[in-house]
């Protein structure tokens, strides 16, 4: 049974990768975000399946290739010109955490959005669409994490001596 479960997770992750790599706007950075959210919208049960705590070890084992593949797609993206690998990784990871959060809320039907409508409003009385939120947060994450002055002001990342400012709170 475990072998069957692992095979289902592997195939679902391959299907998820198809969403991540599908063109939508012509901007691969934005397309990957849209793909992440669309998968959660259109394949709610599969999204929940691959993110079920019972399947975490299988997912971790089989998602490295996805992370590396979508990273390679971004290797020539102008957003990352001149940025260190560390900054690129920080930006990608932070953005993934945001996308995964909003995707989880959508797949668990916390928001009632029409299936596959990335232009849907999250709230009825709002003018903010899912795509607007993705674009806004993408920009905030990118601008915030590429700028050392902002990171230093937030005192989140280690200083020159490798000390994390939050260590002082212990």
Describe the structure concisely for a colleague.
By secondary structure, the chain is mainly alpha-helical.
Describe the structure.
- The chain is mostly helical.
- It has one domain: Orthogonal Bundle (Tetracycline Repressor, domain 2), CATH 1.10.357.
- α1 packs across α3 and α2 crosses α3.
- The termini are far apart.
- 19% of the residues are buried.
- The model has no long low-confidence stretch (mean pLDDT 85).
Classify the fold: give the CATH topology.
Tetracycline Repressor, domain 2
Tell me the major beta sheet.
none
Rg over CA atoms, rounded to whole Å, is: 18 Å
In CATH, what is the class? Mainly Alpha
**Stretches where pLDDT falls below 50 for ≥5 residues?**
none
Residues in helices, as a percent range: 55-70%
What is the typical, i.e. mean, pLDDT? 85
Shape: globular
Which architecture name does CATH use?
Orthogonal Bundle
